[in-house]
Amino acid sequence: MASLSLKHIRKVYPNGFEAVKDFNLEVEDKEFIIFVGPSGCGKSTTLRMIAGLEEISGGEFSIDGKIMNDVEPKDRDIAMVFQNYALYPHMTVFDNMAFGLKLRKVPKAEIKQKVEEAAKILDLDKLLDRKPKALSGGQRQRVAMGRAIVRNPKVFLMDEPLSNLDAKLRVQMRSEISALHQRLGATIIYVTHDQTEAMTLGTRIVVLKDGDIMQVDSPIKLYNEP
Ligand code: ADP
Ligand code: ADP
User: Fold this and answer.
1) Exposed, middle or buried by CB within 10 Å (0-12, 13-18, 19+), for 99?
2) Which DSSP symbol is given to 194?
3) Would you say the CB of residue 42 lies under 6 angstroms from ligand 1?
4) Short-list 157, 154, 189, CA closest to 25
5) Whose Cα sits closest to atom 22 in ligand 1?
6) pLDDT at 40
7) Which of 56, 67, 53, 61 is nearest to 20 (CA)?
């Protein structure tokens, strides 16, 4: 289970710039929340605060009622998938996928089992010894996804995970992400500029502008209003 609560969340960067202003959102367990909005409106900053990669300047963030503001990233039950995949170039697919588990001192045998299981789901089982350089864009994207799912986290954060793929792969990965959401029963927050992705994946869409929430609605309401 993972419900998220963001209350009066603010981010002021050290240079004084207020990137997020009074962000309020209650996310229910297993929701698929989409963040949309123009470049620079604060989508990534908000995701990074949820992941613990960026300090929260004000307000309260909690998961299942537990306040998370000061919890270390590795102690949050959250995995993040980045737009640029952030794979380690010198490591194999296996080691890239195992990285987060090693960091958390998961026993070796368990790591092997989890990585192999995820690799099977993502059709990477024949590629575990390769380096990222020797993979296609779609395969790299799957490794990034695999690194997140091996941890079986309650919360997934995805920052434009498909934007570097060609149109055909985007459609394919879109349905894979939808299937993963069902299969893992995780709560997802997903940033995209793609309206089709937003409409097909999202349970609710959050529209941001200049660090503020403009609107929160279901895809049907948001995109079918006159
Ligand atoms: P989005 O993901 O919606 O494109 P971001 O969250 O990346 O937007 O950025 C929100 C705003 O915060 C932008 O105006 C950006 O320039 C600014 N910003 C991001 N990182 C920093 C930083 N480290 N210092 C100062 N301003 C930043
Ligand atoms: P976790 O699953 O615990 O977040 P990751 O394997 O995603 O662990 O990586 C841990 C940290 O290292 C993350 O903050 C990620 O952004 C960063 N990271 C991963 N790959 C690279 C890379 N190739 N270059 C720089 N930073 C990276």
Assistant:
1) middle
2) -
3) yes
4) 189
5) 13
6) 95
7) 56
pLDDT digits 0-9 by tens, 80-99: 998 888 899 999 999 999 99
Q: Is 44 in the pocket of ligand 1 (CB under 6 A)?
A: yes
d(CA 191, CA 155): 14
76 pocket-lining for ligand 2 (C-beta < 6 Å): no
The alpha carbon of 16 and the centre of ligand 2 are apart by a number of angstroms equal to: 27
HSE of 80, CA atoms in CB hemisphere, 13 A: 20
Which letter does DSSP use for residue 75 in this model? G
Tokens linked to 153: 């986290």
Residue nearest to atom 18 of ligand 2 (CA): 86
* Beta carbon of 55 within 6 Å of any ligand 1 atom: no
> Is 114 touching ligand 1 by the criterion CB < 6 Å?
no
- State phi, psi for 203 to the nearest 5 degrees: -85, -35
Q: What is the pTM of this model?
A: 0.85
Q: Which of 22, 69, 35 shows the shortest CA–CA distance to 217?
A: 35
